[in-house]
Amino acid sequence: MTKKQYHRNRKSKTIQFVPGQDDDLIQWLATLPPTHGQRMIKMALRAYLQQDEAQAQQIARIEQHLAALENGLQQMPEWLDSRFAVVQQTMRSMSIVAGTSALSQTESTFRMSAETKAKRQANFAKMKW
Known about the structure:
mainly alpha
């Protein structure tokens, strides 16, 4: 690219700073060496654009996570219905004998005999706490 083409392709913008409103920027520009102002302003603009892009990517990731959560919540009633159906089917298949549930029958199976109770009581009496 020739020097003439380079100058023809340049784009320039004039920025006006208002005292009182832009005091922080005016003060920052005053601290820059005269030859570094343009370079520092370009660096600041590029940093802002990169930050904006990073935020956009983060927002996109959050939106994907929210969509996945929403999808999961929409499927939840179907999943719960299938779980409840299994429980209901299991309850229907349980037999009730003489007014007691299958659970109370199971509990009665594990009752100790009088002899076992007496041995346990004797062992507890011997223990020193």
